[in-house]
Specification:
The protein is an alpha+beta fold. It is built from two helices and eight strands. The strands form three sheets. A three-stranded antiparallel β-sheet has the order 2-1-6, with no helix packed on it. The protein has a three-stranded antiparallel β-sheet with strand order 3-4-5, with no helix packed on it. The chain is rod-shaped. The two termini are about 60 Å apart.
Length: about 150
């Protein structure tokens, strides 16, 4: 969130790396000498702690306030997350309400007899569940729109 991350390298008595510890960015400050860092908690009755020179790795984003349109980068993902949630809820309701067969069936075969066409039309109407989607059957004899 702050655009900065600080890792403190802690060494053992022989000078080898013992561990890398995260220093909280909220309280870590860079010193006047660019290789020194301190840990300052404002409002606390504690003395600032100065890290050993050269022991802090500073991963820095140039400026928190100079993001795209002056907003932090994570704000652009909030709308995507909310849209994904809405889409998931919609799909869940769509499948729960039994409206799985929302489609258009277009038939142009002139060899079909009218009784089969009527049976298909009736089956499409009865496939409707309690939701908002309807099925549409269109029978076009020889490319003419006679049997909608």
């Amino acid at each position: 969130m702050f655009g900065n991350a600080y890792l403190e390298m802690r060494t053992n008595r022989l000078g080898g790396v013992l561990s890398l510890e995260l220093a909280l960015a909220k309280f870590t400050r860079r010193g006047a000498n660019l290789n020194t860092y301190g840990f300052v908690q404002y409002g606390m009755n504690t003395q600032p702690y100065e890290f050993t020179k050269g022991s802090v790795f500073h991963l820095m984003e140039p400026d928190l306030n100079q993001e795209f349109y002056c907003l932090p980068e994570y704000l652009s993902t909030i709308l995507s997350t909310l849209l994904n949630e809405s889409a998931t809820l919609f799909r869940r309701e769509y499948y729960l309400n039994g409206s799985h067969a929302g489609f258009i069936m277009y038939m142009t075969d002139a060899a079909q007899n009218q009784e089969d066409v009527n049976n298909i039309r009736q089956a499409m109407k009865s496939a409707k569940g309690p939701g908002n989607f309807r099925n549409l059957f269109m029978y076009s004899l020889n490319g003419k729109n006679d049997g909608i």
